[in-house]
Amino acid sequence: MGASQTRSDHEHQHLTDKTGFSLEQIKNLHKRFQQLSGNEETISKEDLDRIPALANNPIKKQIIGAFFDKRNQHQDEVGSCDEIGFEQFLMVMSHFRPPTLKTTDEEKEAMRKEKLRFLFNMHDTDNDGTITLEEYRKVVEELLSKSGAIGQEAAKAIADAAMLEVASTNVPHMAPDDFYEGITFEHFEQILKGLEMESRMHIRFLDVDTTTMRCGKSTS
């Protein structure tokens, strides 16, 4: 038991260096991972699909997909996994880690950029580095139409108008017949410039409130 615990702590220490989570946080996240996976070594999209708190979320599909998107796992790859292990799960969760009092301005900016990239990837579903009108329209339609307050056609019109506004802002000298290819990550950064991310990007559906997680190395 003691040798097993030592090995586990050593493995978790390796993950603290990669993610910035403390040993205690990693242990808590591992318990939640085991609950989701049924004590298996990997979890699937179906495992996350069964989370009750996600049932009525209008972008449930995008949230679940984000966990299996290799771009969000700090891998130099694109594409999607069918299942992920705990380390991959933890790497995705690290996007929601808030800064601490010791976090430098440079580190805060890097963390903000990672959060923005994560959000961008959720919209850029075909991994081509651009959020097209079709991708943007799909997300907006789901957000609006599933709320029950607006029909699909009205949601489509709102999405189209929003994309045109983005196009006019990012490419102000577009001719009437010019085709706007879509939102690049640089455009996305400009659109969300000034938006406070720390209190907005957190996860509660996993029973882990990341807005209250204190980060850094464990002192115990």
TrEMBL record:
One of its GO terms (cellular component) is ruffle membrane. It is found in: Cell projection, Lamellipodium; Cell projection, Ruffle membrane; Cytoplasm; Membrane. One of its GO terms (molecular function) is protein kinase inhibitor activity. GO terms for biological process: cell differentiation. SUPFAM superfamilies: EF-hand (SSF47473). Residues 7-17 have a biased composition (Basic and acidic residues). Keywords: Calcium, Cell membrane, Cell projection, Cytoplasm, Differentiation, Lipoprotein, Membrane, Metal-binding, Myristate, Nucleus, Protein kinase inhibitor. It comes from the Eukaryota. Residues 1-21 are annotated as: Disordered. The keyword Translocase does not apply. It holds the Pfam family EF-hand_1. PROSITE patterns: EF_HAND_1 (PS00018), EF_HAND_2 (PS50222). It is a lipid-anchor. SMART domains: EFh. The keyword Iron does not apply. Residues 111-146 form the EF-hand domain. Belongs to the calcineurin regulatory subunit family. CHP subfamily. This is Calcineurin B homologous protein 3. It comes from Sparus aurata.
